[in-house]
């Protein structure tokens, strides 16, 4: 059992989930860490939860008195763990093969509003490949190439609707929005290929079965839908067929 640090004033108008309480298994090439985020900071544990190997306190120096401070959005990319924050910055932690010598190596500054989600996929040794996408409360998506220094490849503009969840699959960026739509973009260019009116209310989460190419969407309308993703062999255009 792992105890998250949730001390602090209770805010009845704000749900705990909105303050960024998240738990995620980060599978790295050489170890697995359990990462928790809250409005206090970021905790990293060994895979069995027995030992906390790293704690990062959130800096509220730039926050206004009415602004909530939290971390939200967790993903692993190579030997890095990336965590989004209330300020729109993404913290990049360099993880050693063993031990607690974890280092905050970089802060990515592509967003101006709070991060909602982060998704990654293995780069598989390709050059200039988009292997991470970050989303925020304005609906803006930033597409990155990971490495010793992360590179911003493109920005996909928002349209005034939050993007609570994103996924990456074979260079396709799937984004679920607060208006119930799912958009499929070409990650490297940001070109919109498919727009699906998937749900009657806000998307809560997207998930992928990478080997099967199946995308699952869940929303506040209480429905779950499954979509089969593919590329047209003639045009390389992205297609999505409903399965459920």
Automatic annotation (TrEMBL):
- Every WD repeat-containing protein 54 beta-propeller domain range: 19-240
- UniProt keyword terms in alphabetical order: WD repeat
The family database entries (InterPro entries) matched by this protein are listed as: WD40/YVTN_repeat-like_dom_sf, WD40_repeat_dom_sf, WD40_rpt, WDR54_beta_prop
Q: Out of the domains of life, which is the source?
A: Eukaryota
Give the WD repeat ranges: 196-237
Q: Which SMART domains match?
A: WD40
Return the protein name.
WD repeat domain 54
Its ancestry begins with: Eukaryota, Metazoa, Chordata, Craniata, Vertebrata
């Amino acid at each position: 059992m792992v105890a998250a640090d949730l001390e602090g004033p209770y805010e009845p108008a704000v749900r705990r989930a909105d303050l960024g309480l998240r738990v995620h298994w980060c599978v790295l090439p050489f170890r697995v860490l359990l990462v928790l985020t809250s409005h206090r900071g970021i905790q990293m544990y060994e895979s069995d939860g027995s030992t906390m190997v790293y704690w990062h306190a959130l800096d509220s120096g730039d926050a206004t008195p009415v602004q909530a401070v939290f971390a939200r959005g967790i993903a692993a990319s190579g030997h890095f763990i990336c965590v989004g924050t209330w300020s729109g910055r993404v913290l990049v932690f360099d993880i050693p093969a063993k031990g607690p010598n974890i280092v905050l190596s970089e802060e990515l500054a592509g967003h101006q509003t709070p991060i909602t989600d982060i998704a990654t996929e293995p780069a598989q040794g390709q050059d200039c490949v988009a292997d991470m996408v970050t989303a925020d409360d304005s609906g803006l998506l930033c597409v990155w190439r990971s490495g010793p220094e992360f590179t911003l490849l493109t920005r996909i503009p928002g349209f005034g609707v939050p993007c609570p969840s994103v996924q990456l699959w074979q260079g396709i960026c799937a984004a679920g929005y607060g208006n119930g739509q799912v958009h499929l973009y070409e990650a490297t260019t940001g070109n919109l290929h498919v727009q699906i009116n998937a749900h009657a209310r806000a998307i809560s989460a997207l998930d992928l079965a990478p080997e099967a190419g199946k995308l699952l969407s869940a929303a506040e309308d209480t429905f779950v839908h499954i979509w089969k993703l593919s590329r047209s062999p003639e045009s390389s255009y992205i297609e999505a067929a409903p399965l459920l």
